[in-house]
Design brief:
The protein has a domain of 172 residues: P-loop containing nucleotide triphosphate hydrolases (Rossmann fold, 3-Layer(aba) Sandwich), CATH 3.40.50.300. Helix content is 31%, strand content 23%. It contains 11 helices and 12 strands. The longest helix is centred in the middle third of the chain and has 18 residues. The protein binds iron/sulfur cluster. GO terms for molecular function: ATP binding; ATP hydrolysis activity.
């Protein structure tokens, strides 16, 4: 089916004094109804910038964003309802001076001026399992737990009946004990509403739990993508292998350890990123070509792709 939201060859450069931060380069991604894509990478890999580009916080420096197949210019009205971004910090995204009811009412009224607001607010709270509704509707954000606040944020996003949810680390500030419940809630919403979901995370274990497809970013570039099982069982890019090996997942396959995690060092600066493959200073398999030329995208059967010279030489 046609993707709801797409990035095609999207780059975002930010001026920084006399330099340029190359936050995202040449990103291509498609979100389909009812499917969850995990965008995985370390902090500073460009994930959040890409989410903001997809949410039209700012325009790309080059490349295209498409909504329902149409190239988007500016921020058309459809965008406000069709694409909703959920942030890491649920406290920061709710108005602390207003009760839950007011926080939700505003979104409902904007989207459906003639709706029965009370009924709609109650329905939204039920959808995110904040029940009984009376227990939550008149609370202030500070009277709720982090998980409850994030549910209110999700309810508010649902008020405008979006087609796409972009979740930027939506569980990473929550208590470990409730993260799984939040992932299950997101999973339920995609099933019930056929939402397209982009789940942005540094944590490959949660990506593995929730998503259908994985896309890995490193230093502003996408380096590998494909169906989750295949990417995790047999990563093509050494950096993906590093991510999987450093994740505390008991089911991981028995590939030999390629890395000594202690020796890896920091991800590179995006102001003056390494030439060639950006991962080459950390890659134990780097060859001469990796230091000078960026690896092209190699497509493999089964919807997989990667940017690594090793695949070109296979
Ligand atoms: Fe390593 Fe070269 Fe592949 Fe980059 S292109 S990940 S340096 S082998």
């Amino acid at each position: 089916s046609q993707p709801v939201l797409e990035a095609r060859g999207v780059s975002k450069l930010f001026p920084a004094g006399r330099s340029t931060v190359r936050a995202v380069e040449d990103a291509t991604l498609a979100l389909q109804p009812g499917r969850i894509v995990a965008l995985v990478g370390e902090s500073g890999s460009g994930k959040t910038t890409l989410a903001r580009l997809l949410a039209r916080f700012y325009p790309p420096t080059s490349g295209e964003i498409r909504l329902h197949g149409e190239v988007v210019k500016g921020k058309p009205r459809a965008y406000y309802s069709d694409v909703q971004l959920i942030f890491q910090d649920p406290f920061g995204s709710l108005n602390p001076l207003h009760r839950v009811r007011y926080n939700l009412e505003r979104a409902v009224k904007l989207h459906h001026p003639k709706a029965d607001v009370d009924q709609r607010v109650a329905e939204l709270l039920e959808r995110v399992s904040l029940t009984p509704v009376e227990q939550f509707i008149d609370k202030f954000p500070h009277e709720l737990s982090g998980g409850q606040r994030q549910r209110v944020v999700i309810a508010r996003a649902l008020a405008v009946e979006p087609k796409v949810l972009l979740g930027d680390e939506p569980i990473s500030m929550l208590d470990v004990s409730i993260r799984l419940e939040m992932l299950n809630l997101l999973d339920r919403l995609r099933t019930e509403d056929g939402l397209a979901l982009l789940y942005i995370t540094h944590d490959i274990a949660s990506a593995r739990y929730l998503c259908d497809d994985i896309v890995v970013m490193y230093a502003g570039r996408m380096i590998e993508g494909g169906p989750k099982e295949d990417v995790i069982a047999d990563p093509l890019h050494p950096y993906t292998q590093l991510l999987i090996d450093s994740s505390p997942d008991p089911e991981r396959s028995d590939r030999p350890d390629l890395f000594d995690a202690e020796d890896l060092g920091e991800p590179p600066s995006l102001i003056d990123p390494p030439a060639g493959c950006r991962f080459h200073p950390r890659c134990p398999l780097a060859m001469d070509v990796c230091r000078t030329e960026a690896p092209p995208r190699t497509e493999l059967p089964g919807g997989r792709w990667t940017h690594c010279w090793l695949q070109e030489k296979r």
